Backbone:
């Protein structure tokens, strides 16, 4: 069913979007038919009515699983029980529905449908591999990016596999050296030496987390407020798909010298599809979040990448109007945050300066290790 510029699934058009003063449900189709049906903010409804509306919307949703990166999987029945019992998550779910429904009503009058951002083609400038300057030469070396992909957890694995297939090649194509910690290698002991390398310019990945912590395989503490060397983040851009880390860990990394940090201030929540019967909901979440990485890989500034990511979420929301997926895409978009220097870009290479004669023994040894000694 098409309403305005939005194409609704049949069940989504039947879901209520508001409650009348008489206590009756109002659907999005009702609002579209009656121009005079102006609705106030759902946040102004009594809590009991908000709960009633959220329950009805979820009861009309086909069976699904909800993935929460910091928690695990929940069935539709479990979500309904959480809302009924007004647990901490149940309250969040109600507010997510109210916020999305408010925005859905406003979107009916939009002039056009949001579109996915086009990943920009990188502007590649060919520079020589070396150049002489008096008694010094400058050798071009590739910069490095490091990805921490949790592939040993059922919730994070689909996103990790998508990132490995789509995001990593984009950085390789641009000329970056791509380093990956995954499976049981995704632990702090392996992260630290790679993070401290002076050629590392970007850190990304998916893992669990909380306000102060980003974890890897088996919950291993990779980055935690108060428990890492500033050299691990200084001069790097960071993007983590994880729960809550942009609230405290993100600002902490920027304070300690990170160029920028993109992440989520609350739980990243998504509609889970069985890979064997996959439609498009999970892919929408994967595609929207990875837009930030792809724009950074193409040479965009952090702010441009963040704006493109927001545009991607908007396009994803418009593809599944009225659904639980749209509600949680809205929630994730609204809790995505960019910290640090928005004008920052990262480049695929730089020069290392070598001057002759090499007086320091350490420099002589390094040169010997890199080449062959001949007469």
Residues:
């Amino acid at each position: 069913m098409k309403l305005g510029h939005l194409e609704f699934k049949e069940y989504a058009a039947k879901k209520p979007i508001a409650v009348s003063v008489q206590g009756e449900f109002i659907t999005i189709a009702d609002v579209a038919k009656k121009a005079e049906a102006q609705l106030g903010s759902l946040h102004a409804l009594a809590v009991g009515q908000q709960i009633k509306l959220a329950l009805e919307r979820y009861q009309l949703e086909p069976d699904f699983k909800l993935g929460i990166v910091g928690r695990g999987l929940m069935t539709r029945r479990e979500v309904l029980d959480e809302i009924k019992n007004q647990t901490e998550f149940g309250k969040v779910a109600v507010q997510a529905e109210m916020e999305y429904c408010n925005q859905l009503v406003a979107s009916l009058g939009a002039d056009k449908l949001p579109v996915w951002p086009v990943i920009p083609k990188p502007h590649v400038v060919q520079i020589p591999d070396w150049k002489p300057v008096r008694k010094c030469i400058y050798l071009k070396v590739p910069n490095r990016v490091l990805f921490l992909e949790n592939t040993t957890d059922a919730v994070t694995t689909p996103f990790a596999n998508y990132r490995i297939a789509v995001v990593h090649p984009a950085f390789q194509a641009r000329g970056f050296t791509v380093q990956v910690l995954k499976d049981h290698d995704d632990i702090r002991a392996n992260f630290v030496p790679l993070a401290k390398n002076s050629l590392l310019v970007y850190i990304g990945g998916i893992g669990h987390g909380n306000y102060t912590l980003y974890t890897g395989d088996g919950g291993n503490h990779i980055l935690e407020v108060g428990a890492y060397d500033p050299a691990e983040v200084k001069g790097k851009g960071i993007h983590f798909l994880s729960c809550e880390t942009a609230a405290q860990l993100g600002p902490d990394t920027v304070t300690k010298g990170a160029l920028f940090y993109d992440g989520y201030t609350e739980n990243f929540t998504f509609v889970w599809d069985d890979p064997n019967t996959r439609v498009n909901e999970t892919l929408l979440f994967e595609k929207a979040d990875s837009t930030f990485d792809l724009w950074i890989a193409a040479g965009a500034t952090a702010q441009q990448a963040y704006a493109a990511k927001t545009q991607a979420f908007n396009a994803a929301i418009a593809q599944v109007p009225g659904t639980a997926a749209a509600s949680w895409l809205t929630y994730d978009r609204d809790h995505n945050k960019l910290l640090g220097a928005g004008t920052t870009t990262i480049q695929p290479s730089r020069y290392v300066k070598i001057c002759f004669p090499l007086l320091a023994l350490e420099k002589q040894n390094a040169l010997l290790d890199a080449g062959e000694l001949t007469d």
